[in-house]
Specification:
- The protein is of the alpha+beta class and about 450 residues long.
- It is globular.
- Bound molecules: flavin-adenine dinucleotide (FAD).
């Protein structure tokens, strides 16, 4: 064990809300995960790129020094890594060798352990499913201190419960996964400008079989044509280079006053929408700006000032989903200022009992954190439950326990696995306490 920050200090997720006072131990070796249990750690923590309180608890073990590559097969693309390695570190190793992450979230900074815990999805869920579809096995330390290797046949209930289980079933030590072969570091991108929400959804849905990746940025502040936007469709393509260099980044200087007045956001959205002059545009770019546009500005979450911000991401089934999204936007956009809106589709992939993806539309929205935005979003959540949808735990900071029970009908299956591998109810987080999971 390389270090323990004995003095509790304030910690928060990417949204900078809520803040929990925490003692952090640091694991360097597999055995340190077990030892951290003796020192009362109740949760593994990665890069704190989850937005709300999923990675927060009064006593945690950080996995960031567990960042080694354990095994790599250059011919087949099978990779086994320690849980604290970040996606960026993985990409720097695998891209020059002709491989890529099979699923990646919209930032390359999370750890693979955090990505397992959230069962992250990318812009390719409609083709490739979520992360679990590409993971062969996990090694983890349970709350009882046992080291278990689990997969789809051995300890299958534990394996599935880890995906979406937000760290509540054990400390993941290593992940064995299958990478995706690529011919270059380039992505061929087709960008289509849309007139309104209907057209955005039509294009996203009708192009599902044609492109591996798809995502839409929405302008939800435009009064008449709310939901107009830019649909960005992408595919790995041929090219001469195989580099994992990120684009040059700049850092947001400091936490200061908030920069998101509504008229400023409306003007910003209009300018972003119009930056694309033609309705259809073809380009070829390095994968970095396509998958990780926000990583170019480090610490951009500071722009929301001390109170921080909320990301609210939900999924609703395709049947009735568009009506639900329209009603939801009508309800919230007049009372709160949404600073970012991103729409994607989910296909039929499998996930764990607390996994987020289900077939349908998924919309992620950012808001300044204020008592008003919290109560508005909490009240509007019944629209999501009524439509048969759910909120993403990796982004959540505000869901009420009764909504969780409605949204996650397989929670009983998860709790049965948790009872089996954590009979002493040791593993918990601020999120699990808030939602009544622990
Ligand atoms: C800009 C941005 C864009 C994003 N885009 C997407 C996206 O497109 N799709 C998507 O799915 N997500 C997305 N995310 C969310 C992010 O991928 C997840 O929240 C991920 O879980 C963060 O990993 P982390 O290492 O930061 O984990 P943390 O935030 O530190 O922890 C998250 C959860 O993982 C658990 N955990 C961490 N390490 C371990 C371990 N070794 N063993 C067991 N449990 C562990 C924690 O206990 C906690 O419950 C985005 C986040 C940001 C900031």
């Amino acid at each position: 064990m390389t270090g323990i920050r004995l003095k509790p200090h304030p910690t928060c997720g990417w949204g900078r809300y809520p803040v929990v006072t925490s003692v952090v131990q640091r694991a360097r070796w597999l055995d340190d995960l077990r030892l951290s249990l003796d020192r009362q750690a109740t949760l593994a923590q990665g890069q704190l790129r989850s937005y709300g309180d999923a990675g927060l608890a009064p006593s945690v073990v950080s996995t960031l020094e567990l960042n080694r590559i354990l095994h790599f097969e250059p011919d087949t693309g099978v990779l086994e890594i320690e849980a604290g390695i970040t996606l960026d570190q993985i990409l720097r190793f695998v891209v020059p060798r002709g491989w890529f992450l099979p699923v990646t979230p919209g930032t390359k900074h999370p750890t693979i352990g955090g990505c397992v815990a959230a069962d992250v999805h990318g812009k390719n869920h409609h083709v490739d499913g979520s992360l679990v579809s590409h993971v062969e096995a996990l090694t983890l330390v349970t709350a009882e201190g046992d080291t278990i290797r689990c997969d789809r046949s051995d300890y299958a209930d534990l394996f599935w419960s880890c995906f979406g289980g937000m760290g509540l079933t054990g400390f993941v030590y290593s992940v064995r996964m299958q990478l995706l072969a690529i011919a270059s570091d380039q992505i061929g991108v087709v960008t289509r400008r849309t007139r309104d929400l209907e057209e955005t959804c039509d294009i996203l849905k009708s192009t599902q079989t044609q492109h591996r990746y798809s995502v839409a940025w929405l302008d939800v502040l435009h009064r008449r044509r709310r939901g107009r936007g830019l649909v960005m469709l992408g595919d790995h393509t041929q090219g001469a280079s195989m580099k994992a260099h990120g684009a040059r980044t700049i850092r947001f200087p400091a936490v200061g006053p908030r920069l998101f007045a509504r008229p400023v956001m409306q003007a910003g959205n209009a300018a972003y929408y119009r930056r694309q002059l033609r309705r259809l545009h073809h380009s070829k770019v390095h994968y970095d700006p396509y998958f990780y546009p926000l990583d170019g500005l480090r610490d951009w979450n500071r722009a929301y000032g001390r109170p921080g911000f909320l990301q609210y991401q939900f999924v609703v089934p395709f049947a009735g989903g568009l009506d639900c999204i329209r009603a939801f936007l009508d309800r919230i956009c007049n009372t709160t200022t949404c600073t970012l809106a991103v729409l994607k589709t989910f296909g039929d992939g499998q996930t764990g009992p607390l996994g987020f993806p289900q077939r349908g539309w998924t919309l992620a929205l950012d808001f300044c954190q204020t008592p008003k935005s919290i109560s508005t979003l909490q009240d509007a959540t019944s629209l999501i439950t009524d439509a048969g949808g759910r909120l993403y735990l990796a982004k959540d900071a505000i869901m009420r326990a009764e909504h969780f029970a409605d949204m996650y009908p397989r929670a009983g299956e998860f709790l049965a696995a948790k009872r089996r591998y954590d009979p002493g109810k040791r593993l918990r987080s601020a999120l699990s306490d808030r939602l009544g999971i622990t």
